[in-house]
From TrEMBL:
PANTHER family tied to this protein: CHEMOTAXIS TWO-COMPONENT RESPONSE REGULATOR, STRESS RESPONSE REGULATOR PROTEIN 1
Domain Response regulatory stretches: 4-120
InterPro entries noted in UniProt: Bact_response_regulator, CheY-like_superfamily, Sig_transdc_resp-reg_receiver
Stated name of the protein: Chemotaxis protein CheY
One BP annotation, GO: phosphorelay signal transduction system
Superkingdom field: Bacteria
Positions carrying 4-aspartylphosphate: 53
Pfam families, A to Z: Response_reg
SMART domains associated with the record: REC
Length: 121
């Protein structure tokens, strides 16, 4: 049985790149172009991984993470923040919200898969 991932980013090209990379690693992908769309697309589905951007219109990544963590089915799902932000204070905000890990853009597809392999069981 393949694993599934929710990929949320307002940049179409970034979303496609992450989706392609994870798809090559055997994940079925569901996408969202902002946090609200990602949240809407998560309803009633089971995911093995969430990858989200931080800065997005409508709903940002931190708010998305907080909302997902309130759903019991997302309590143990690894959530990776993939963003241009690299400040320690932002990373702490992500951790407090419930992010499992933090990857700074631009990302290396091999690095992304290595991180995913560490957090996805």
């Amino acid at each position: 049985m393949s694993k599934s991932a929710l990929v949320v980013d307002d940049s179409t090209s970034m979303r496609q790149m992450v989706s392609f990379t994870l798809g090559q690693a055997g994940f079925d992908i569901t996408e969202g172009s902002n946090g609200q769309e990602g949240l809407d697309n998560s309803k009633g589905k089971k995911f093995d991984l969430v990858v989200t951007d931080l800065n997005m219109p409508v709903m940002d990544g931190l708010t998305l993470i907080r909302n997902l963590r309130q759903d019991p089915s997302f309590k143990a799902v690894p959530i990776l923040m993939l963003t241009t932000e690299s400040q320690a204070s932002r990373k702490q905000e992500g951790k407090t919200a419930g992010a499992t890990g933090w990857i700074v853009k631009p990302f290396n597809p091999t690095q992304l898969i290595q991180v995913v392999n560490k957090v996805v069981r």
